[in-house]
Amino acid sequence: MVYTYGVWDLLHVGHIRMLQEIKALGDKLIVGVYTDDAAEGFKRRPVIPQDQRFELISSLKFVDEVVYQDEFRPDKNLWKIRPHILAKGPGAAWDGKEDPPGLEVMRQLGGEVILMKYHDGISTSMIIEKCKAMGSEKKETHGAIAHIAPIQSPLELHPLRLCATISPITPHLKDIEMARANGAFGTFEQMTRNLDPYLRNSIRTFVDIPNGRTKPRTNSYTDDEIIQHAKAIGVTFIALSYVGSARDLRHDYPTIAKIETAEGFKNIKEIAAAAQMILIDRRDLASAIGIMNVPGAVRSIIDTAHEAGKEVILASEFLFSMLNSLEPTLAEVENVRRAKELGADYLVLAEETAISKNPAYIFQVARDLCNGC
Fold first, then answer.
1. What are phi and psi of 178, to 5 degrees?
2. 308 near 273, Cβ under 8 Å?
3. C-alpha to C-alpha distance for 180 and 170, rounded to whole angstroms
4. How far apart, in whole angstroms, are the C-alpha atoms of residue 74 and residue 4?
């Protein structure tokens, strides 16, 4: 009996060929389909809803059974199904460098993990990009040239969303779409207490991992201690600072790669393939590559991440003046509009919600700007 799993979004011939190859590994093939929420937690929300993806996979004659997978890792389904083989397409985060998710469970079950090969030149992301390109072409209609409006990718269909940094003084923020805690500050008890309201409401969360941070911090926890605590309380992601290459993404947990160094910018293609999301720290990136080079770098990073099907979080200092003012500057308003124009998926509020006197008010101003720019 063989188990495999995936999003299976925009089902294409590459999916079919790989599933047929997996079927040949055993006498029964059970396929896990990521739920919409599970897929959004580490990649992006699928174009095709989960019930339709489930139905499509079920219609394949060589698939014997289909189940939902509602977590990033397959462990829960593995314990329930108890397959002899776990087969999976290679992930850049573990391909030859890291144990694939589910390996330890399969060892305990006495089974094996087999990594399959993807079929080059075929992917959901490539299909989306091709649709965008085709949609922007002109075509002849009865002797006239009609312009077809560009088809939006799933990433573009989302408005610019807000990620707020939560500290002990931050009140509960309504309508927040992602909550962030900085692992360099506070105690584990404070981290848990700060994130708990958002964890209980299934709002996406992440914890920054210092990874050699030289900036000021208020605790002495090791990276591994912070990661283990983040896992224990069930955050959606860990966010690793100073990622320079895909090799840095060694943790067996959904990871946001923070791009803030020249090396990280240089290696963005391999990092985007390996990470679950990308966070651009414009302030640190400016120190690394020069402030005049940041606008072009940000555009390039966002485009590369979207080509890999990954969402992008953009930081920092979007409403920094509001630490001492009740209104944003015109430059800050334009900054938010520009972030939306570039296709950023999330905008980060850091000091604005973590240490300001009016975090809820600033959050609402940011919400209005994101909706109105």
1. -160, 135
2. yes
3. 11
4. 9
Separation between Cα atoms, residue 263 and residue 244, nearest integer Å: 5
Question: Quick check: bond before 125 cis, omega within 30?
Answer: no
Q: Read off the pLDDT of residues 92-114 as tens digits, 9 standing for 90 and up.
A: 344 455 678 888 999 999 999 98
Q: Which of 274, 237, 281 is nearest to 258 (CA)?
A: 281
The contacts of residue 190 (CB under 8 Å, 6+ apart) are 168
**Cα–Cα distance between 371 and 159 in angstroms, integer?**
7
Strand runs (DSSP E) across 92-187, as ranges?
112-115, 138-141, 144-147, 161-165, 178-182
Task: Kindly report the backbone phi and psi dihedral angles of residue 58, in degrees, each rounded to the nearest multiple of 5, phi listed first.
Answer: -65, -25
Pull the structure tokens for residue 256: 């946001």
pLDDT tens by residue, 40-61 = 877 678 888 888 899 899 988 8
Question: What is the model's pTM?
Answer: 0.60
Asked if 163 and 353 touch (Cβ cutoff 8 Å), the reply is: no
The residues, ordered by sequence, that sit 6+ positions from 4 with a Cβ below 8 Å of its Cβ are 19, 22, 29, 30, 31, 32, 86, 87, 88
